[in-house]
Amino acid sequence: MSANLLTLESAGAASALPTAAQAGTQAAPVAAAADSERPGYLPEKFWDPEGKKVRLDVMSKSYGELERKLSSMMPGPQAPDFDKALRKALGVPEAPDAYRIELKDDLLQVDPEVNKRLHAAGFSPAQAQLVYDLAIERMVPLVREYAEVYRSEMTQTKLIEEFGGDTAWSTLAPQLASWGQANLPSSVYDALAATPEGVRALHKLMNSGEPNLRGATAAASGPADEAELRKLMADKRYWRDHDPELVRIVSEGFKRLYPDRD
Known about the structure:
mainly alpha; 3 domains; disordered N terminus
């Protein structure tokens, strides 16, 4: 006897079978349970959920592809071109003469031998420039200072020989300094004492018995005190020779000191 599909008993039996949506809902926990056995650090593509094991073949293939990609970018340390590739990546030029050094002081010049050593050590252009910059910053001032000291010593040595040797110079030098400081404006004395020609001129002035030029300069350039003007008046060129220039200096000096006098 065929079952009556319209009876409630038949409907109840049929309703006991799961629908497609219900079947999917029930299967999901099973799949989730299988996937939950995959270690958290392992990407899904490397896990076999059915065999519940790592897909070593897929992992090996992926590692090989990664290694090939990295090797194309930079060869490994054991590769014959590793050093060359590394230097290129760091910006090291192909040859020492390819460095473009900017010099900030004329005293220093680009040294090809230095550049060869920088290149051999793998210096980038920026590092090579820094070497030269530090040399200019630290070494050039010392070189200039030592050069000036050497020049002064050589100049003084020649003067000592010219004026009769060490013994004569040890006596003459203090005399020149004392006379120059007493009779010349400080700026004039400093200028003369700084060069061999100036020292020779100072020596001639001292030996010629020239009058005190400090007072004459002060009178010519600005107001002087009366004592200095009196010294100028005591000069024989003033009272005996009536030197026009000296007379003018004395006259103008008194006018500046005493403008209200007739």
